[in-house]
Amino acid sequence: MAIITEEQDQPQRPNQSHSETRPPKVQKPISPPSSKSSTPNPFTFWFYFTLLVSLTTLFLISLSYLAPRQDPKSWFLSLPHNLRQHFSEGRIVKVQTSPNQAPIEVFTTEHGPVGAENVLLVHGLGLSSYSFRKVLSMLASKGIHVVAVDLPGNGFSEKSVVEVVEGGNGVFGRLLDVYDEIQEKGLFWAFDRMIETGQIPYEEIGNRVSKRKVVRPIELSPGDIARVLGQVVETMGLAPVHLVLHDSGLGYSANWVSENPALLRSVTLVDTDSKAIGALPLWVLEVPVIREVVLGFSFAYAQLINICCSRGIAVLDAEAHRVLLRGRNGRQAVVGMGTKLNKSFDLAEWGGSDGLKDIPMQVLWSGGWSKEWSEEGRRVADALPLAVFVTHSGGRWPQEDAADKLAESIVQFVSSLPKSIRIVEEEQIPEHIQKMFDEAKSTDHHHHHHHGHGGQEHHDSHAHVHGADAGYMEAYGLGNGW
Ligand SMILES: *[C@@H]1O[C@H](CO)[C@@H](O)[C@H](O)[C@H]1NC(C)=O
């Protein structure tokens, strides 16, 4: 890297004869010359670019093609059977995290008798409602009404929004932008352009990198997630709810929990570390090359999961998590969400706050994962002195390898509490909205073929009815018969 800095500091070295042949138009600034790195300097830029292309060619020649940008429909059709099955049992709920943004489609799956005790399961980092598939059916068979949600950016929920963005700041930010650009357009795009036009497409890249309309991953903060959970609970009529938070599901949901104790019947924490950051190491999904390898190859991902999260996970299920995580920009969304977690979260302060100290709590913890993990469990138990503490034999993703014990503990805890009194009655859908919903339904099957191409455009053809399960199959451009 020292060499790179030197090149940049002395851009006008006399032996760079090609600078004379440079077309004059490259003088045009691409971005305000506020910092050293944003001063336009084609040579430096192309030096980086060549370096990057060489490295990419060496290490990644096939990897950039391992993460193809598929349209949602072909992505969906490529899914393994277990994921399609899971999807077909779910329903899309639309939520609004801010008033001037299009609603976000949130995938939920609901099992068990309506009207019984309500349990809401929230997954941790890198997971989705799919991880709860066994717990869902076990709880339902014990007469519990249970819902699992894919937080936006995860699983089958929406993962991206369209935005106009500025390019990254600094040398590293620009490098990352160019790297993304290569991933998006393919390794040989720049060379093709050079052959076509006889010129280096410097300006084209410069413009695109400094300002471009992109499909951005949804990167929700705990504040946004609070709004998502609030609307899911309201729409599905789940209050008062027994909340089950796994892993960083605690970090994601902590704000909503603190703000809404009145909607809670109990809280169960499942292997949630005291910082609520999660078992899957975020940097693995962040660092270029590593992230491509881990998400690009089943065995690499399965290896990682074995080390960090679960030793007993079935190969097919690890593969399902990998497919969901990398599909449709999922990785970026998950990383964005992970970096927005509250770094100064304090479990004792959270659990002891005025609103929460009277909410029944239970902690489910792995007894045999590692010595460090058992110690962490003791810290968590100390931070929540009133919580019931139960150990299980699974790993840090126990819904994968100790689902029966998990379900049993949840059932026991829920039934040990006095029966809930429903505080929110399900509202009638207002007539005009019902009408919109019916119209949307009757027009939907006339234009299936529009969906699945535009990515975000399909909103326009749906009625924005909260909670109406209007055509969830159309979410991927699949009306019927897939
Ligand atoms: C982060 O956590 C701390 C400690 O639990 C809390 O006081 C603070 O309000 C949280 N910050 C945000 C932005 O939620």
Automatic annotation (TrEMBL):
Q: Which molecular function term from Gene Ontology is one that the record holds? A: monoacylglycerol lipase activity
One cellular component term from this protein's GO annotations in UniProt: membrane
* UniProt-listed InterPro entries: AB_hydrolase_1, AB_hydrolase_fold, AB_hydrolase_sf, Epox_hydrolase-like
Name the Pfam families for this protein. Abhydrolase_1
Using the UniProt annotation, give all residue ranges assigned to the region (Disordered). 1-38, 440-463
Transmembrane intervals: 45-67
Indicate, by first and last residue, each region the UniProt record lists as having compositional bias (Low complexity): 27-38
| Key words of the record | Membrane, Transmembrane, Transmembrane helix
Provide ranges: composition bias, Basic residues. 444-453
* Annotated GO biological process: acylglycerol catabolic process
Q: Where is the AB hydrolase-1 domain?
A: 119-279
Q: Does the keyword DNA-binding apply?
A: no
Q: What is this protein called?
A: Protein AUXIN RESPONSE 4
In what ranges is there compositional bias, type Basic and acidic residues?
Answer: 454-463
